[in-house]
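Changelog-adjacent note: as of this version, every example in the card shows the full chain rather than a window. The one below runs 602 residues end to end.
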Amino acid sequence: MRFVFAIVAFVLAAVMIVLGIAQRTVFLEPAFTSLSATVPDDARYVVVDSKALTAHDGSQTVTVSGSGPIFVAYGRSADVQAWVGDARFAAVTLKKGADTLSARVEKAADAGATSAPEATPAVGLPTNPAGSDLWLEEFTGKGSLTTTINVPEDISMIVASDGTAPAPTKISVSWPTNNATPWAGPLIVGGALLALIGLVLYLWALLHLRRSRGPRRNLPRGPRMPKLPRAPRPKMIKASEITGQRRSIARSLGAVVPVVLVSGLVLTGCSPDFWPAPAPSSSSVSATPTPDATLTPDAAADVPPPAVTVPQLEQIVRHISQVATEADANLDVDAIATRFTGPALEQRLANYAIRAKIADFAAAISIPDSEFELTLPQQSAGWPRTVMTVVKVKTDPSVAPTALVLTQDSARANYLVDYAVQLEPGAPVPEVAPATIGAPIIKPDIKLLVLPPDQIAAAYSDILSNGEASSFYSLFEADGDSFRAQIAQDQQAKKSGLPTTASIEFGAAPGPGPAIALGTIDSGGIVAINVNETETVKPVDAGATVSPSGASAALSGVTATAKGIQSTYGDQLLFHVPAAGSNEKIVLLGFAQGLISSAELP
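Full-length structure tokens:
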């Protein structure tokens, strides 16, 4: 019976091991669920909507095939539709109850995109979607492109070639499936253990059989037999001859050991998919990862989403920093105009003109991209959009942080820097809403602040011109305002260094830059404004002349004039303006100043 039990154990072990291995091979379910679509070849853009991307749970592996360059990006569905506008595009979606993706060519208006704030892009804007600030992430390839993303609902994907040639025609989306085989591990391990038990039983049976063949003693006596002739005495059995039985046992052992070894080798490849998993506790369950950050606020449904996410803004500022660094080094006026506008552009263009003639003239403030201290996007689903951010150089704490005010005029336009200022040392930056919620834009003429945003430039200009005699002096905090102290010191130095044959006059007035304001948690606002200061030097004696020097001479091109020279300095200023009725004062947060023009008086 021992041999029977051993054979049964070996058979059961083999069955269990074979079944365990078969679950991970011939019976294994596919690791992915895939859907595909063939896109008509007469569309320049393909939009894979949220329903197609989130048809199944888990991350999405997107494969795009075409005959040329391939561009793939994803962003908020409304932003993707707004970028496409009224252009002809192929919509890839998953219809309810369908088991395959469908693709058809249509226009944004046909797809319900008329509700988007901007359905028709302005004429002359780029047709290539690559590099747009709307995308959360983008990918490029040629011929074929495969990428894995993990996006939630309300995220769509745009596919194109170069915006001119037809878009790629084959698109497939796949999702990982749970093909775990929780009984494969127990079957293989159980089979290996059963094989070991069978081996023990087999050896036990062999030993028992050997012992049962030994000499028997005290046998009962039978009838007396007649004596037989004496047989020759048998030879003594040598010890070496006894080992024959042992070698047979070793051979039997060698036949069974490979079974155990195979089981052990199989187990070395086991993963968690081979074993039953305990039910997840409520504390370990997590939501599907979102792309980079939360895209919509947790407030009421009618609150517009923030214009950008933090990772999206980091990417935008990184591009701006690269452009500014290269343009500043090469004095490239065309390149800097692709990322700057308004007072920030005006100041940099003048700086380039001066540095072209004065090599050691100081460059405009750099745009760091290393660490973000504050991100305040506007709550907006439409355009134009505004974002404020404060960036500092992580490797050099001595460099003052830089505050940027960015605006995006349309869906196909990139964010441009309107204002770039360095913060005052120890400036009390007000508390603002989280970047995942954003802040409302404050209209320029709103009366809910100590001063409406569009009146702050005029009020501060009056203070620069009249000092404490200004009627607005009490509304602005003087302590910590190093800009006013710097202006007063410069004006005094210029007056004392002027020859008696000339006179100098100073003035200040609101500049052409817009007043841009975003709300803060204290019901106040962060306001960026533009002020232009003028410096007019005239000869006072007949026949006398004025000879500008330095930056003024570089911009004006005048070596001497009997009429006089007027130089204009552009000031970019950032303020915190308290709410109306507050006892707090308007505080200067940061500034940037630079000579923007110098010309002979008419």
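Structural remarks: The two ends are 123 Å apart (CA to CA).
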